[in-house]
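Structure ticket #2291
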Amino acid sequence: ALSAMRIGWDAGNGAAGPIVNALTARLPGYHVLLHTSVDGHFPNHHPDPTVESNLTDLRAAVAEQCLDFGVAFDGDGDRIGAVDAKGRVIWGDQLLGIYAQDLLREQPGSMVIGDVKASSTLFERIAELGGQPLMWKTGHSPLKSKMKETGAPLAGEMSGHMFFADRYFGFDDALYAAVRLIAATIRIGTALTALRDAMPERVATPELRFQVDEVRKFAAVDEVLGHLLADGVPVNQIDGVRVETPDGWWLLRASNTQDVLVVRAESKSDEGLASLLVEVDRRLAAVGLMRGPQATH
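Resolution: structure written out below.
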């Protein structure tokens, strides 16, 4: 029951803070609030819930106060992050899988849209639950457009943007997503930590971002695509290149907003992940590029 829930909330001194205060005052249960005063200097940590180091305070609160889980928000309250009772980060694609599990109990056969950076286990899970998985371009604008076009009731991306057209307006409201996460665990009848325990283990890179000249970034991806096609490699071209291999999958795409290329890879093993990154580096070298230091912008 909601009254028995123990939840941590970290607003990161962003715009969500006053709303978190008002919302939790009306929600049954026990709530621990962190950094809800608005302060654009962000004195505690940067409000990006997809960066693990920004979740240190929330993790500590969850552990110290024996909370069921904790949620965190970005600066303008449209992206959500979460940690379970064991302190594990529940990443965007994992959150979307939980939302899908809840939704598909009531609306079997619905389409659920994930972005091209999401784990293959997400799309497998949506299908297993009786939904229609659709992989689409990264970015809140492409996802919202695709939702409208397809009538999908749910979409989300790795960055923590979650879109509910089911009982809501179809845009990315992280406060609403937090309440839906609480509701999902109650309706499914399983604690968030147990839902995370049941997920298949994968080894994945974080988002590897390295600087490439703005004029070169899209051309570089096209050149890598050309080489892959010439070698007869099946390529998903929804957004950059995504290649499935026996070891797992890897993605190379140009950032929509910055002068960086983005690489992500996922495997069932450390060895598999290492071999995927060797393949990525080989493909980059063939077009005269190398994976440089992590871009900080």
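Closing remark: The domain at 92-175 is CATH 3.40.120.10 (Alpha-D-Glucose-1,6-Bisphosphate; Chain A, domain 3).
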